[in-house]
Amino acid sequence: MAGDDPFAEVARLLAERRNAVALTGAGISVESGIPAFRGAQGLWEKYAPMEYATIGAFIRSPEKSWRMLTELLSLCGGATPNAAHTGLAELESMGLLRAVITQNVDRLHQAAGTGKVIEYHGNLEELVCITCWRNFPTRERWKGDGSPPRCDCGEILKPNIVMFGEPIPWTAQERAEEEARSCGVLLVIGTSAQVTPACDIPRLAKKAGAAVVEINPEETRLTGTVTDIHISGAASDVVRGLLRSVSSLQKKND
Ligand code: OAD
User: Fold this and answer.
1) Is 90:74 a contact under the CB 8 Å cutoff?
2) Atom of ligand 1 at shortest range from CA of 191
3) Domain 1-34+82-121+168-254: which topology?
4) What CATH code would you report for 35-78+123-161?
5) Is residue 160 lining ligand 1, measured as CB closer than 6 Å?
6) pLDDT of 86-114, one tens digit each?
7) CA–CA gap between residue 187 and residue 203 (Å, rounded)
8) Which residues does 7 contact at the CB level (< 8 Å), separation at least 6?
């Protein structure tokens, strides 16, 4: 599908269809200093997900899960958006991007100024008690000293993120599916597409007629099957390149 210049081709699709949606994963935040989950520097190399990141593991031993959660919170805490996050916010303000569906829990899309963000895996801003269901802002209860934060009822709190074995919050699931079914272009940025049901979103969009554009330095299981155009590179470079191509297309059409 891509011609000689994939950037120009994607810019043309964005400008013509004016209803793109982005699906983002950990890779988009790598250049903000948050390592991805899988791969050499990834959190899952250090903390086996089945031992630390399932809801069953949290219920059995919340103190153990909090070793991983403390590291995740510390990594995300000081991070700021990079050019890929701000570039997507710019595409939204130009009327070319309708929504961002993110698997990330770091809130960097909101920090970059994107208005419509669907948090598929929740976020780290809130803690919830899985015994009495009270919620607390993380900054009120998490001391960052290694001790797990506690509810007033005495139980250990859980960040309001989706751990393995937990369902996707139903509003996020519904909204994401609706966006996927009705978008003209799906930009899939920085995800290995290994986790269900998030990895089904590109298939859903493709089936409904969207062009699927993958931005990732590596190939994934979507590449060559679901993906129409794969632009290999770091998210910030590629999104910057897309913005340049959009603006030269606009100049040509003026
Ligand atoms: P992964 O760690 O599985 O994949 C990150 C992807 O980002 C890989 O395909 C990398 O090639 C790519 N990548 C790395 N650096 C990049 C860069 N600078 N620019 C663009 N892409 C880059 O992360 P996710 O696919 O997001 O779930 O993982 C999905 C879910 O698995 C996460 O939301 C998390 C995890 O377990 C939960 O915690 C519920």
Assistant:
1) no
2) 25
3) Rossmann fold (3.40.50)
4) 3.30.1600.10
5) no
6) 999 999 999 999 999 999 999 999 999 99
7) 12
8) 231, 238, 241, 242, 244, 245
Distance 185 CA to ligand 1 centre (A): 20
Residue from 105, 124, 216 whose mutation best tests the ligand 1 pocket (most atoms within 8 A of CB): 216
Which residue has the least CA distance to atom 35 on ligand 1? Answer: 37
**Model-level pTM greater than 0.85?**
yes
Long-range contacts of 132-138, Cβ-Cβ distance < 8 Å, separation of 24 or more? 135/160, 138/73
The response to whether residue 62 sits with its C-beta less than 6 Å from ligand 1 reads: no
Pocket lining: 174 vs ligand 1, CB cutoff 6 Å? no
For residue 68, the one-letter residue type is M
Give residue-wise pLDDT tens across range 221-233: 999 999 999 999 9
Helix (H) or strand (E) holding 125: strand 122-128
86 lines ligand 1 (CB under 6 A): no
Do residues 105 and 77 touch, judged by C-beta distance below 8 A?
Answer: no
In this structure, the strands spanning 20-24 and 135-137 are unpaired
For residue 64, give the amino acid letter.
K
> For the chain, which residues make up each domain, given as ranges?
1-34+82-121+168-254, 35-78+123-161
User: Is position 121 annotated as part of the catalytic site?
Assistant: yes
